[in-house]
Design a protein that fits this description.
It holds the Pfam family tRNA_U5-meth_tr. By secondary structure, the chain is an alpha/beta fold. The protein contains 11 helices and 22 strands. A hairpin with a 2-residue loop joins strand 3 and strand 4. The radius of gyration is 23 Å and the shape is globular. The site of S-adenosylmethionine (SAM) has 21 residues, from helix 6 and strand 17.
Length: 432
């Protein structure tokens, strides 16, 4: 197979990244935007040793699940994977993808259908817009897939209306001389439509722009300049200066008020977050005599919620700011049976593990570190509730848990990242 060759194909399947799959010369070819059973003329755009990529030149038929994408940047910006597909059908794709991973690992479990929302748009409470200056003009939007080219986007359909509103104001006011020192603009919103803006760049030129924006929009309650002179892809730098208000935004989760520092993790979909945490607590069957450990506790959301139903909770989190948030959040919500330790989860498990009734783990995409899985038995939990944003590492860790004597009894996907390839799962592991 050669680049630029043209083929007429019928799509056989769809991946969890939104690529249609066809086989040509017994090689898989992935075609973004093509849906199962659709017939199309495609051009081969990239050939690798074991698979290739194609692009639709002309589509001859339409799947009954096909939708007109709600965004003109779909397929260009690298964000959404399923705007062309009926929402329920996209959930089925996600469920199948997780099921395939468990089947391949020989872990006998029927993955549940994802829990979802009615309206899978305008849900995100956090956006990171890369900024570039090209030919004297400011470009702001999202990266093209697998590149650092910015696709200039005037709005994003999955961001909250509050974020789109302030993003458009920034796009109007940001001048090339300011944008030249900017790498990203991070914007967060909360349920009250309050806004936090973080200018991330090499030099603070944002005092005047900040004043202008805050004067025009009283919903902006926090503006921070974060210095990042790193040469890698890490978005946030270390040092920062508060330009307006606070360095955190107050979020509400299931009746709790949570301070969230701009460096701290917080789930991006507030509606699905509550469904996720409620499902996790239901699976844990919490009782008031229980002692719980919450590894990877972030700003303490799960720890604080769980602490209302059990005797004690210890949260373990590596980011200092998030751990400080968590301690403050316990106090502001009058929860006195929860404590937080700023420590690597693996080191904590190795040094301090002790008998725990339920262990909650909610690691980043790379999953549990080996030390944490090696020392799971030291906690001797009856149940482990694993919240995962990466099904690949979930399955890897499920295999390790199985070897350590814990069977997977439930995998419940939760569509936290509607329209994108992302999927959150909450799983229950029970001691054999
Ligand atoms: C997916 S977030 C979950 C946060 C929290 N459970 C929540 O629901 O908001 C993962 C958290 O793990 C923290 N983290 C990453 N690596 C860690 C490590 N090695 N040890 C402890 N915490 C870690 C991150 O800072 C982040 O707050």
């Amino acid at each position: 197979m050669q680049k630029n060759e043209i083929y007429t194909v019928i799509c056989e399947d769809i991946t969890s990244q939104g690529y249609g799959v066809v086989h040509l010369d017994s090689m898989a070819v992935f075609v973004f935007g093509l849906l199962p059973k659709e017939k199309a003329k495609i051009r081969i755009v990239k050939v690798l040793s074991r698979y290739a990529f194609g692009k639709i030149e002309e589509r001859y038929t339409s799947s009954c699940d096909r939708l007109e994408p709600a965004c003109p940047a779909f397929g260009k910006c690298g964000g959404c994977a399923f705007l062309h597909l009926d929402y329920l059908a996209s959930l089925k794709v996600k469920q199948n993808a997780v099921q395939t991973l468990f089947d391949r690992a020989h872990l006998p479990i029927q993955v549940e259908f994802p829990l979802s929302v009615q309206d899978p748009y305008a849900y995100r409470n956090k956006a990171q817009f890369p900024v570039q200056v090209r030919n004297g003009k400011v470009q702001m939007g999202f990266y093209r897939p697998h590149s650092h080219d910015v696709i200039d986007c005037p709005e994003c359909k999955i961001q909250s209306d509050a974020i789109n509103h302030v993003y458009q104001a920034i796009r109007q006011k940001l001048r090339p001389q300011e944008a030249a020192t900017l790498r990203h603009v991070l914007i967060r919103s909360n349920q009250k439509n309050e806004i936090q803006i973080v200018w991330i760049g090499t030099e603070n030129r944002f005092q005047t722009l900040t004043q202008d924006l805050c004067k025009a929009d009283p919903q902006i309650v926090s503006v921070v300049f974060n210095e990042n002179v790193r040469k890698d892809n890490v978005i946030l730098g270390e040092s920062y200066e508060v330009l307006y208000g606070t360095d955190y935004l107050v979020q509400e989760c299931m009746g709790l008020q949570m301070d969230v520092h701009f460096k701290s993790f917080y789930q991006v979909n507030p509606v699905m977050m509550e469904i996720l945490y409620q499902t996790a607590m239901d699976l844990a069957k919490l009782q008031d005599f229980m002692h719980v450990v919450d590894l990877y506790s972030g700003t303490g959301t799960i720890s604080c919620l769980v602490s209302q139903h059990v005797q004690s909770v210890i949260g373990v989190e590596i980011v200092e700011e998030a751990c400080q948030d968590a301690k403050r959040n316990a106090l502001r919500n009058h929860l006195h049976n929860v404590e937080f330790v700023c420590e690597d989860a693996g080191i904590y498990a190795k040094k301090h593990a002790q008998k725990t009734d339920v262990l909650f783990v909610d690691p980043p995409r790379k999953g549990l570190c080996e030390e944490a899985t090696d020392h799971i038995q030291d906690f001797d939990p009856d149940k482990i509730i694993y919240i995962s944003c990466n099904p690949n590492t979930l399955v890897r860790d499920a295999k390790r848990f199985q070897e350590a004597g814990y069977d997977c009894q439930k995998v419940q996907p939760v569509d936290m990242f509607c329209q994108t390839a992302g999927l959150e799962c909450v799983s229950l592991f029970v001691k054999r």
